[in-house]
Amino acid sequence: MKIELKKFTLRDYIRFIILKLNRDYSNEFSESLFEYLFDKIKRLFMKQKDYITSIFVNGKFAGSVGLYAIKNKKSEVGYFVLREFRSKGVATKATQKILNFGFKKLELNKITAITDKKNIASQKVLKRLGFEIIKENKKEKEYIWERLK
User: Fold this and answer.
1) Which of 10, 15, 49, 110 is found 20 to 30 A from 38 (Cα to Cα)?
2) Can you give the pTM of this predicted structure?
3) Cα(77)–Cα(1) distance, integer angstroms
């Protein structure tokens, strides 16, 4: 299985908008469509530093992984993998690639992640990649993870 990361394009952005409107995927996005779009537009105007990539498996679009809010040698990682590519190591391998880029090329010292308490699959990915839980947000029902360089 060949996993590649490519620059996130407008076409990929539209793929995610379509996914957010798809009933099968809509419950997997915690934000409403308008909140999601507003956040992306706000990031563009604020010129917030993000490094977002699309994941391709054997040439087929499989999801996205990125480093967000890059500042002071710190960032947050986030990823989403389409169902047909889950439980195949795609999230782990793609996230490892973006972590390597962040630590080596961007010279980050710390990368954080947030998972819903119920998202066991995502928690397993982070554990495999050396992340540790540093905080539990009981109000939002999520864990905050951290990995140092």
Assistant:
1) 110
2) 0.84
3) 23
Decide: residue 126, CB within 10 A, 0-12 exposed, 13-18 middle, 19+ buried: buried
Q: Among 98, 92, 26, which residue's Cα sits nearest to residue 65?
A: 98
10 Å Cβ neighbour count for 121?
A: 12
The DSSP H or E segment spanning 19 is helix 10-21
Tell me the C-alpha to C-alpha distance, in Å, between residue 43 and each of 3, 85, 107, 131.
27, 28, 22, 26
| Cα dihedral 51→54→55→59 (10° resolution) | -140
Dihedral sign for Cα 90, 93, 99, 102, please: negative
* Residue 37 banded pLDDT, cuts 50, 70, 90: low
List pLDDT tens digits, range 104-119: 999 999 999 999 999 9
Reported as type and span, the H/E element at residue 126 is helix 120-128
